[in-house]
């Protein structure tokens, strides 16, 4: 490891996990209050009683900080611990990691960030790295286990679209039904749409 890398790592390590979680909560609160474009590192520093230099040293900029804050707020950092023995069980377990209140808050937050994500290349890049790619990796692990168990043929064309189906259902719930996504809605959607598309019978069919 180079000397500069050692120094950078040492600086980053000064923030404890508890302090990091506190900073992320403050960032999300500010996002909900003012939106991404009006959020500033100065405001984060003031809200968290931090120095702006510390924030930039730890996260590099607003886009990275916001993306990591949103990722940190999502329950369960990985699907590695989700292995119920069936695809239906795994998809249900992933859905149940968030309660209805958390889903409503996350849905509102993502609606507020949607325009900013596509208008800010740095934010889009950070979201892909810290949210989109990890979530796609989660789905791939779950689906690969289903293939390995023989539940789903490896050449099923719907496999590539499972993330689109799940994320689409979450996002479209408010737009089409004017209601927030809920556990009951998403569990029913998995049984009625996702599993049939993969050729997996659910107890309801």
From TrEMBL:
Spans through the membrane: none
PROSITE patterns in UniProt: HTH_TETR_2
Name the UniProt record assigns to this protein: TetR family transcriptional regulator
One Pfam family cited in the UniProt record for this chain: TetR_C_11
Keywords in alphabetical order: DNA-binding, Transcription, Transcription regulation
Species annotation: Streptomyces asoensis
SUPFAM superfamilies the UniProt entry points to: Homeodomain-like, Tetracyclin repressor-like, C-terminal domain
Domain spans labelled HTH tetR-type: 17-77
Annotated Gene3D superfamilies: Homeodomain-like, Tetracycline Repressor, domain 2
InterPro entries: Homeodomain-like_sf, HTH-type_TetR-like_transc_reg, HTH_TetR, Tet_transcr_reg_TetR-rel_C_sf, TetR_C
Annotation: DNA-binding region: 40-59
């Amino acid at each position: 490891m180079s000397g500069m890398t050692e120094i950078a790592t040492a600086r980053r390590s000064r923030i404890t996990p508890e302090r990091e979680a506190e900073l992320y909560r403050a960032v999300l609160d500010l996002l909900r209050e003012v939106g991404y474009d009006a959020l500033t590192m100065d405001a984060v520093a003031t809200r968290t009683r931090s120095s702006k230099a510390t924030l930039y040293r730890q996260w590099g900029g607003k886009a990275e900080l916001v993306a990591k804050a949103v990722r940190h707020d999502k329950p369960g950092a990985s699907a590695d611990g989700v292995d119920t023995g069936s695809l239906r069980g795994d998809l249900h377990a992933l859905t149940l990691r968030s309660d209805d209140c958390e889903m409503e808050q996350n849905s509102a937050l993502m609606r507020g960030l949607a325009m900013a994500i596509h208008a800010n290349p740095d934010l889009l890049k950070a979201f892909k790295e810290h949210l989109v790619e990890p979530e796609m990796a989660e789905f791939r692990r779950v689906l690969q286990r289903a293939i390995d168990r023989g539940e789903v043929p490896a050449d099923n064309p719907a496999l590539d679209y499972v993330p689109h189906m799940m994320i689409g259902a979450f996002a479209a719930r408010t737009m089409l039904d004017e209601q927030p996504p809920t556990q009951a809605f998403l569990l029913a959607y998995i049984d009625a749409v996702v599993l049939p598309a993969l050729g997996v019978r659910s107890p309801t069919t």
